[in-house]
C-alpha cells in the first residue's frame, strides 16, 4: 500500500509503502483524530515507524492495492 502524508506548513511530504491494508490505515488515523491523540503511528515495509503529530497532519493519501504494470503492452 502506497501512503503519502502531507504536513502542514511544510513543502515536502512523506512517502512510503506499507503492508497494512487501506482499512487498517484509515482506522488508525481516524481513531487518532477522534480520540485527540498527539501522534499518528504508521509503519512501512522495512520496519520503520513514522510518528506524525495530529495537529500538523494536512492530508493522508492511501494508494491502491494493485501494483503497477511494468513493460510494454502491444
Question: How is the topology of this model organized?
Answer:
Layout: E1 2-7, E2 13-17, H1 22-34, E3 39-43, E4 49-53, E5 57-62
Antiparallel strand pairs: 1-2, 1-5, 3-4
Q: Can you describe this structure?
A:
The structure is a single chain. The protein has 74 residues and is of the alpha+beta class. It has one domain (2-62). Helices cover 18% and strands 36% of the residues. The chain is built from one helix and five strands; from the N terminus they run E-E-H-E-E-E. The protein has one helix spanning 22-34; strands at 2-7, 13-17, 39-43, 49-53, 57-62. It has a three-stranded antiparallel β-sheet, covered by helices on one side. A hairpin with a 5-residue loop joins strand 1 and strand 2 (13-17). The longest helix is centred in the middle third of the chain and has 13 residues, at 22-34. The chain starts with a strand and ends in a 12-residue tail after the last strand.
Question: Order of strands across the widest beta sheet?
Answer: 2-1-5
Order of helices and strands: EEHEEE
Beta fraction:
35-45%
Structural class: alpha+beta
Radius of gyration: 14 Å
Total number of strands: 5
Q: Name the average pLDDT.
A: 88
Question: Which key features would you list for this structure?
Answer:
74 residues; three-stranded antiparallel beta sheet; alpha+beta; single chain; 36% strand; elongated
